[in-house]
Structure formats: C-alpha cells, structure tokens
Amino acid sequence: MARALDLVGDRWSLLIIRDAMDGARSFTDFQHRTGVARNILTDRLRRLVDHGILGRETAISGRRQIYVLTEAGRDLFTVIVAMRQWGERNTFADGEAHSALVDRNGHSLAQLRPTNLHGDRVDVNSTTVRRNT
C-alpha cells in the first residue's frame, strides 16, 4: 500500500485522477475542476505521466497535448469509487446536497463490499495480511 500511496496518495493526484475519469483532458480542464495552483498541477501531471497513470496525446486539433488515463490509471476506478462512496457516507451532513456517481442509465452504484474468492463478504475483522517472502 505504501508504494501505491507514493504514486497517487496525495490530494491533488487523486483529484486529477477522479477528474480524468469524469472527462477532464486538458491542463485547463484540470485546473478549473480542481482549483489547484498551476505549478502544483504541472508537477502532479508530470508525476502521473512518469509513473504510467496518465498518458499524453496530441489533441485532434494538433495544437495541444491532452491527458488520458492509461490502463494503470483506469485500474484505479474501484479506488476512486470506494473513496467517493466513503465520502458520501461520512463527510456530508444529513440532507446536504452533493454529487453522486451513477451509471449511464442514471442508476446509483451498489456499495462496494470486499468479498473472498468464494463470494463471502469480508471486513477488517475477518482478514489478515499474509507476508510473502
């Protein structure tokens, strides 16, 4: 987990990844959506590209670079969904308005719940970390 947090664990990187999943592509898109300072955004985008989370492509116009999620970036979808769901449950007052992630048909997503390979739900009390040597 420490290695993953080194790559994507800071606030701005997670917000950039979230916004890339929500359709942001250009530097300006990310800056408007996150409100992050230009120098910090430049650094985070560079790091996410260097670590293979985002890729850079030339826009159709041919005049600017855009950022796209790589396979590794798309693999973070479950992490982003889990963070959104946790935030929706734990950071808003009852009745407070907030955005919600829905599928293409407008349906809410099921709450993510870890299961073992047999489909049984697991939680912090029924799991342990096995160290491979």
From TrEMBL:
GO MF, one annotated term: DNA binding
Keywords associated with the record: DNA-binding, Transcription, Transcription regulation
HTH hxlR-type domain span: 1-95
CDD domains (alphabetical): HTH_ARSR
Entries under SUPFAM superfamilies matching the protein: Winged helix' DNA-binding domain
Gene3D superfamilies per record: Winged helix-like DNA-binding domain superfamily/Winged helix DNA-binding domain
Entry coiled-coil feature ranges: none
Protein name, per record: HxlR family transcriptional regulator
